[in-house]
Design goal:
Layout lengths: L1 H19 L20 E7 L21 E7 L2 E9 L9 H29 L4 E2 L11 H14 L9 E4 L1 H7 L6 E2 L5 H5 L4 E3 L2 E5 L16 E8 L4 E15 L8 E13 L6 E6 L1
Parallel strand pairs: 4-12, 5-8
Antiparallel strand pairs: 1-2, 3-11, 5-9, 6-7, 7-8, 9-12, 10-11
Helix pairs in contact: 1-2
Length: about 280
């Protein structure tokens, strides 16, 4: 029974976590991997090219080519926990309403933490492509800035298959909303809306996040750095997560007499296997 409750509670937290995340799995990050995340490292299959097409010779057939799939080692190096006191209740006596509220809160808090770390990885990983223009966009230049990202990524071979994404800061979003070329949420498919897409522009699914870098003074010495938007594709952005200790309501045996706590540990790793495919537009003031 305890194991069943652990699985049910963990599923409830994961559901809230997925709803909270802007950087959703399989839209921003892919979650393909081989191995066991609890072991501390997994292998992520990465394919840079498609199957080669060759001329067929009726006498000799076609030569055999090798697959270009390689593997990217992803360290599962982030370990976070929820440990929330429920004062005055033994584990067996916690009302369903309190249980649901604490689990919902745990999922929300984990989602915010995971979002922040995921966006920092997109912004700061060595080798990402950073726009040479470091001044803030205006209503007349915002669309051109997105088109510059589109051109840059197209030249790199980033697929234009409907999966390209753009994470916009609130400030950039404010400018983008005034452009008639921005396809607003009401004109999107229900599936995209349910997945958190707030619009489309220049072939990008647009997401909004307030966890992007804002007036950071550590990235560039002597300047305040603000991220306006980030563009990428899930092919080369990876995130793998797992419960190392499933969520459980446990009795406390220390000074908290007659109390319990919501406890659980989530481990995950974030990595970019081809950093140059991530495009960041920054302002340095």
């Amino acid at each position: 029974m305890a194991h069943i409750l652990q699985e049910r509670y963990a599923s409830m937290v994961d559901e809230k976590l997925r709803a909270t995340l802007v950087t959703k799995d399989n839209l921003i990050f892919n979650s393909r991997f081989e191995g066991n995340p609890k072991a501390g490292k997994v292998k992520v299959p990465v394919r840079d090219t498609e199957v080669e097409v060759k001329k067929y010779d009726k006498q000799n057939g076609a030569s055999l080519s090798n697959s270009s799939t390689s593997y990217f080692d992803l360290n599962i190096d982030i370990d976070e926990a929820v440990n929330e006191l429920i004062d005055g209740y033994d584990a067996e006596a916690v009302p369903d309403g309190i249980t649901a509220e604490r689990l919902d809160s745990a999922g929300y808090s984990l989602g915010l933490s995971m979002d922040t770390k995921s966006i920092r990885a997109l912004e700061e990983t060595a080798g990402i492509t950073v726009s040479a223009t470091k001044t803030a966009v205006t209503e007349t230049t915002a669309y051109k800035a997105v088109l510059a990202a589109k051109r840059t990524q197209s030249r790199m071979g980033v697929p234009n298959d409907g999966k390209r994404w753009l994470i916009a800061s609130p400030e950039f979003m404010e400018v983008l909303m005034t452009d008639d070329r921005f396809i607003k949420q009401g004109d999107l498919s229900q599936e995209l809306v349910q997945n958190g897409v707030v619009g489309r522009i220049a072939g990008y699914n647009v997401f909004e996040s307030n966890n992007t870098m804002f007036e950071d003074t550590k990235l560039v010495v002597g300047k305040k750095t603000t991220t306006e938007f980030i563009c990428g594709h899930p092919n080369w952005c990876h995130r793998v997560q797992e419960w190392s200790v499933p969520v459980e309501i446990k009795n406390l045996t220390n000074n908290y007499i007659g109390s319990s706590a919501v406890q659980g540990r989530k481990v995950y790793g974030i990595g970019i296997s081809k950093p140059q495919t991530v495009y960041v537009k920054r302002v340095e003031a």
